[in-house]
Every structure is written in structure tokens, then in C-alpha cells.
Amino acid sequence: EKAVNLKKDLAEMQEWMTQAEEEYLEKDFEYKSPEELENAVEEMKRAKEDVLQKEVRVKILKDNIKMLAAKVPSSGQDLATELNVVLENYQLLCNRIRGKCHTLEEVWSCWIELLQYLDLETAWLNNLEERVQMTEKLPYKLDAVNDALESLESVLRHPADNRTQIRELGQTLIDGGILDDIISEKLEAFNARYEELSHLAVSRQITLEQKLQTMRETDHMLQVLQENLAELDRQLTSYLTDRIDAFQIPQEAQ
């Protein structure tokens, strides 16, 4: 009777493993929204816990069959053969579910990381847009133009590492057919805004550099003119002090 019960337990265990494999490993999943992906991750976590909890039952079956084999070798031998099959299938099921759970967790982590990088770069784009807008109405002062140029250049020196991560993470998920529509839309919008703002910022940078150069040249010309006028004023003052007649001084002084 005990052998019959153990044989029944082994059959039930095998049946449960077959159902678990069909439910968790053979279904075709499509992850078209973050909610679907997150639900799949949670489901596989529960599946992993469910399978691992059966380890206690498998151990009890193993111990009982060993005890029976020691008492009744003939019955125990047949059950031991069936047990080995069940143990092998159980270990395979555990490994496959662990693997799928790990894969889905990695995919979810990849999605979250992509969102974080997009948030960082969006904040940078907002800052860049703000700096560009600040250059639109500048007072005609050398210091103001110089400060605006330095401020814009400091933002433009932003490293490209984050954009590289966005491109690689997005492509990895899209290649796997995971959230491909959503990610493609997000990347398209981000890239379009990045290209527009970066080109506008570089164009504004060139304009400010040219304006700054013109203002410096003008300042230099004014400085030279002021120095010449000051020298002329000194000479004329000297002539007046010495009471020199106008016809006795050089033509340009007259």
C-alpha cells in the first residue's frame, strides 16, 4: 500500500511539473506596455517561489522511497527509477524557471535604467534650452555677451555617455521585441529635440563669438582713438600754455 501511495505521489509530482512548464515556460509573452512587463516579472518571481517550495515535498518523497527500498528492495527499485526521472525533471524545471525569472528581471532593470537616463538627458536639454533663450535679448555690453557665451559653452560641454547608454539600452530592448513601440516613440522624440536644440545652441554660440569679436575690435578702436585724442589734447594744451601762434605749429594741429 505504501508503495502504491508513493507511486501516486510521484505521478502527481510529475503532473504538477508538466502543468508548471506549460504555464510558465511555454506561453508566448508579448510585452507591449510597461505594465505587462512588470506583471510578467512578478508572475515569474511567484513561479520561482512556487517551484522552490516543492523542494521539501521532493525531499520527503526521496527519503520515503529510500526507506521503502531498504525494507522492500523489489518495490523500492522500481520507485527509485521513477524517482530519478522526477528528480531530473524537477531540477531542469527549477533551472529553466530561475533562468527565465533572471532574464525578465534583467529586462525590467534595463527598462528602468533607460527611463533614468532619459530623465537625466531631458533635464540637460531643458537647461540647454533655457541657456539659449537667455542669449536672445542681451544688453550691448562686452561682459554680458561674454558671460552668456561662457554659460552656453559650459552646458554644451555635456558628455555624450548618457546618450550612448540610451541608444544601447533602447536598441537592446527593441531587438528583443520588448516595449518596442513605446521605446521607439520615446527615442524618436528625444533625438528630434536633441538635434533641434543642439543645432540651435551651436548656431547661437557662433553668433555670440562673432558678436564678441566685433565688440572687442570696436573697443580696441575706441581705445586707440581715445589715446590719440588724449595725445592731441596734451599737445594743444602745451601749445596754448607756451602761447605759440597757430601759424607756427604743424598743419594737423591748426
Automatic annotation (TrEMBL):
Gene3D superfamilies recorded: 1.20.58.60
SMART domains, per database record: SPEC
InterPro entries assigned: Spectrin/alpha-actinin, Spectrin_repeat
Entry coiled-coil feature ranges: 3-64, 215-242
One Pfam family from the record: Spectrin
Signal peptide positions (record): none
Keyword list, A-Z: Coiled coil
Species in which this protein is naturally found: Bucco capensis
Name of the protein in question: UTRO protein
Taxonomic superkingdom: Eukaryota
Keyword Nucleus: no
Residue intervals passing through the bilayer: none
